[in-house]
Amino acid sequence: MRIIRSVAGRRRRTVSVATAGLTVTALLLTGCGGSSDSGKGADADGTITLTVANFGQFGYKEAGLFEKYHELNPKITVKEDTTAEEKNYYPKLLQQLNSGSGLADVQGIEVGRIKEIVDTKANSFADLSKVIGVDEWVSWKAKQATAPNGAVIGAGTDIGPMSLCYNRELFEKAGLPTDRAEVAELTAGGWEDYLALGERYKKKAPSGTYFMDSASAMFNAVVSSSPEQYYDASGKPVYQESASVEKGWKLAARAASKKLTQGLAQFEDQWQAALRKSTVATVVCPAWMAGQISTYAGDANKGKWDITSAPGATSANWGGSFLAVPKSGKNVDEAAKLVTWLTAPEQQAAVFKAIGVFPSNQGAYELPDVKNATLPYFNDAPIGQIYADGAKSIPEAVLGPKDGVIKDSISTQINNMEQRGTSPDDAWDAAVRTIDKAIG
After folding, report:
1. Torsions phi, psi for 318 (to 5 deg)
2. pLDDT (tens place) for every residue of the chain, 440 residues total
3. Cα–Cα separations (whole angstroms), residue 380 to 199, 249, 281, 372, 374
4. Between the CA of residue 427 and those of 154, 213, 257, what are the distances in Å?
5. How many Cα atoms occupy the beta-carbon half-sphere of 360 within 13 Å?
6. Interatomic CA distance for residues 230 and 58, integer angstroms
7. At CA 297, angle to CA 296 and CA 298, rounded to 5?
8. For residue 280, how far is the Cα from the chain centroid?
9. Rounded distance, CA 164 to CA 310, Å?
10. Tally of CA atoms within 13 A in the half-sphere of 261 that contains its CB
């Protein structure tokens, strides 16, 4: 398996993006202007090896960025140490932080972990606020990595602005519009409109097909498009009182009861088979999900899918990561320069072109490789425009240290409503017991 970047079940695969060519010259011009002569981690001849530890697929290898950085800085070589699964990477990172040894010069941090790191380990990382252009990032992204004292411990890499992927062929067979603007209009009122569209689909749905793959994915989108999610600003878990959680749960229960969903656990074998066999008509689509669909639906379904904006006036974010520089490193200054360069607009655009993950740096949105990007697999959907518009409407949300645990526990019980017919009340009680036991 090629790239897995996973937290709360999230996985990603490379997707082919059609863009204007980004020249090597343009990339080289954005370099940090050469390295310092030496550092405490330099070899006798002044050469430096910077280590970057991350998980899954950040796209730097695919975009050739480490090689380009070496061209800019001949005395610096970058080596990447990648762990396939984030769930295996993060415990090791915590162990290294606790022991104070074994850390790379640059460490990747998943958005689902950033709050816990900010709250408990911020002092272990260098403050990047003076070297990165904090204002270049979408505002909520920068704040996620900002400690109470104003230190910014991570530079934003990608984000996952939400869209809606739909199977044009199934829509046509069910008598629904297939034009992406018309589909967007039908769901403009929000996720209630999305379910109403699902009921229209069900009336004439091709045999053996379902409107959506998973109600838990819809739940996640509903919650993630709200400022209040699982925690309040004081850090108190409020998932039981959260209006967005209540709304998402009720919509998921409705989808399950009306059999609008196939009840599939996303990314698992049955889900992959459903895409290949075209049994689901819509998938809630953060930017990285397009790669999953094109991979598992396969060449036989190329052109049958399309992408439109997410339901409602506000989008949601699902996914994204940061690059942080441990203070214990031997080359902190050089590592900070590397992080600044990797997260600059031109480099984020190059990664988007290479693997389809969307930039968090707003400066990339006007570059040709982002602004003019389309997805041939998805009927040439203008994803550069769709994702950029979505990113601008994502609300600033409060993150909590155990968001992933809460989300996973609720998703499991939504799946039980779909597959086992568990009542909403029993499913919710089971979710609460699991969550309270996990978070204390």
Report:
1. -135, 100
2. 224 443 333 444 456 576 544 333 333 333 443 333 334 677 767 899 999 999 999 999 999 999 999 999 999 999 999 999 999 999 999 999 999 999 999 999 999 899 999 999 999 999 999 999 899 999 899 999 999 999 999 999 999 999 999 999 999 999 999 999 999 999 999 999 999 999 999 999 999 999 999 999 999 999 999 999 999 989 899 999 999 999 999 999 999 999 999 999 999 999 999 999 999 999 999 999 999 999 999 999 999 999 999 999 988 999 999 999 999 999 999 999 999 999 999 999 999 999 999 999 999 999 999 999 999 999 999 999 999 999 988 998 888 989 989 999 999 999 999 999 999 999 999 999 999 999 97
3. 28, 34, 18, 11, 5
4. 37, 19, 13
5. 31
6. 27
7. 85
8. 22
9. 5
10. 31
Task: Give the residue from 20, 7, 93, 12 showing the smallest Cα distance to 59.
Answer: 12
Token pair for residue 255?
Answer: 């989808």
Give 269's contacts (C-beta < 8 A, 6+ positions apart). none
